[in-house]
């Protein structure tokens, strides 16, 4: 009688294959039983759902904040039974997950490793999912779009701060010469409906820290700034009170650009362009350092934002705009120490390509009151007055 000799390597191969098949069957059965015993919840909408609207406050590319969400959603689409169920990490025991990982290079806690196994080219891909785009939109309501100068549709995500070497940029900007009899400074509000916490003096009911009532939103702050500039420093100011973010928030920057162009045509004497906003934290920061007490009165702190216009055909001369922001910051440090939070450089354009004297100014945040924001405008007006010549 002849015995068939089976090599040890073959035996190990067959054993591993059988074990893998058994594990897969067990996992499928487990998921099937769970789906039969527990009601299936509707999956939440992806965090990166695209809004087909227009904006300019944009980033250089769309980065999905939670990479795992992308892969989880992809798996859910391919395997509907996974919808509404806990993650594989929670379903599979540690020992089982460890065993699978050791023999199949699959991390059950990271769904992307399963996709990488099936589609090897994904393994070398960057861990942030990017779509060709440019610019920055500060608000959380998702991804926005803009139509560029060539008619292409560009996608955007929330604002992205960038590190740019500005060590060679100094505040050597000469004082801005105000000439002519018309308005010299344009104050406008791309996100005009942004508002602050209600207070005893300014008591109103905002919706998501926004209101169309111009007595309580950014228009009110701009009005106060214009008042101080005219009354205390005799500077001719024009305030555009258009609600550029209403009814469509995503059209904000497109709308404000149209307004700016109209204002420049109407008032060719305009030389400085100030887009007043307020910052927003939501629940991400319960105690932001956005208030300073000056002469015994709380005031909202101020931060300036300069955009590089990354990817745009018409880019801002951001270093020139940065000089203006730096000069304003230095003056704020003098007139009200502690009120300035500095300058932030981002990839957005923020319509700052329209001038070399354009800056976006965040007056406090949604954690401040309108009282505090209005208090800050007197110091901002003084700083502005200190860098102009009439």
TrEMBL record:
In the UniProt record, does the keyword Coiled coil occur?
A: no
**Keywords from the UniProt entry:** Membrane, Transmembrane, Transmembrane helix
Q: Which domain of life is it from?
A: Bacteria
Transmembrane stretches, start-end: 12-33
Q: Which residues form a coiled coil?
A: none
The protein in question is named Stage II sporulation protein P
